Each structure stands twice: as C-alpha cells, then as structure tokens.
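Render this sequence as a predicted structure.
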Amino acid sequence: MNMVSIVFPGQGSQEPGMGRDLAEHSAEAMELWKKAERQSGLPLREIYWDGDESAMAATRNLQPALTVVNINLWRFLAERLSPAGAAGHSLGEYSALCAAQVLPEDQLLELVCLRGRLMDEAANQDGAMAAILKLEQAQVESLVAAAAAATGQEIRIANYNTPGQFVVSGHAQAVDHVCAGTKPLKGRAMTLPVSNAFHSPYMSEPGAELSRYMDKLDWRDPKIPVYLNVTARPEPSGAALKEVMKKQMTSSVLWTQTIENQYADGMRAFIELGPKGALSRMISQILKDRDGVKTLAVSTIEQSAAIEETLA
C-alpha cells in the first residue's frame, strides 16, 4: 500500500454548494457548520449553499466555511486512511493541524474565524499580489530582486506553488514592476483580486494579533507529522508547531518544497480533502517526473469511493 499524505486546500478553492452533500448525510457534519456559524456570527450555509460569488469570496466568510468543509471530509474518511503526513496550503494548514489533533476543533474554529476577520480588515491599497506563470524559480527570484532595487519597496515570492507557478506579494509598485518584466521572458503575469499583500511583512500587524491569540490555545503534539508552509518540514511538538505557525501569515508558502520533502520521506499517494482539486493538480506538476505517484481530489461523498483504488 502507498504511503499517504493528506492535503487541504486554502483560499480560492471555494465553490457553490461545497460541503452540502456530506452535511445532509451526517448530523455530525451539519453540527460543525452550525458551530462555525455560532462562533463567526455568519450565515455560512446560506452564503455557500445559496449565496453569490462575491459573498463566497469574502475572506471572513470563506476561512471558517472552507475549514468546516475540509475537516468534515477528514472526519468522514479518517477510518479509511492512515496518513504518514499531512499538509495544507495557507488556510488549509489549519485543517491539517486539526487532522493531526494539534488543536481541538472548537479552538481551531475560533482561530480561523479570527484569522479571516483580521485578514478581511487588513485592507491596504499599497499591497498587491500577482501570479507569475511559465517562468523558472531563478527567473522569478531575479525579477523580484530587480523590482525591490528599482522601486525601493518590499516584495517577495509569497507562494512557491509549482516549479512553474509562483505568487509575488508586496507593494503594488514593485508587483507591477515584476509583472512588466515577465513578458520579455515569455512568462505570464496575472494580478490577483486581493485587498492586501498576503504572506508578506504587510501582514505583520494582523499576524501579531493572531499570534497573541495562539498563546491562549491548547497546542498538543501531532498525531500525524504536519509539513509546515513556513519551513516545508514537520515539527515534533505542539509548542514548536505554535512558534512556526506564528510566522505563517507573514512568511512564504513553500508548497513545492513541502511536496518534494514528503516524496523524499516516502509518500506516494496524495489525497486532497476539499473543493476544486487545485492542490492535486499542483502535486502532479511538482512530481511529474517521479515514479509511483498517485493523486486524488475528494470533495464529495461520491468521489471518496475512489480512495481504495488510489491507495492500492
């Protein structure tokens, strides 16, 4: 049987009706939606099962709702899976912590509700982000360094999503400079519809508030190794996990490095629990030249039927 990694998607993976089939199948799953609604004060089921796209994309709505979807899928499938590792992309990392029993569900929901609100309120017209496609890492790093030097402004690679897909984050002037530099290199740049420069020092203030709240929570040693966005490596204790997680909001998401490290540690089957399947596609690109890799995206009860075939 393949060694398994479970991975959880983050912001941008939302879709209409997400999590509804499982909630209508399981009273326990429905109760988690209700609990998140009580903690957030938001009508999450109404928004994601009957709402419009603008409401679904709002950060303070999305973060608790997507976390509920991810966790419910893990609960439903946990008895059929014995993962050797877990990881989550940005917001999805909180679902990985829950699956590893690092934080109790109530506390984790409180944490993502606060994170969503803080990020929603941290609008900054100087902050911007852009996806950079079809260029190699060294080329993007060179563009970022040139933009910082030319503008004198903060900018960094915020997401290492695949060997050919990156996200830059920082001052809008510097981000524009990077975007302009991609075309001569035959790359592609897309400005993202965000209100700030996430995963950069622009998030220092909300990150500090979230860190203070983390100190109030009960961090336990992980039952499953969680490979972290900040380091691409797991930590053995709850105390160490907390200290790394305090850096997550202002640090880069080392997704490519995370998946490569999991592969190096023996993982061959990657099961994504959450909507859209974006991480499964990324993993296929990251490990495209490696032997024995299987990926599966599970967002519905129906899709979960393919798990045994993936694990075989």
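Summary. The longest strand covers residues 155-162. The radius of gyration is 19 Å.
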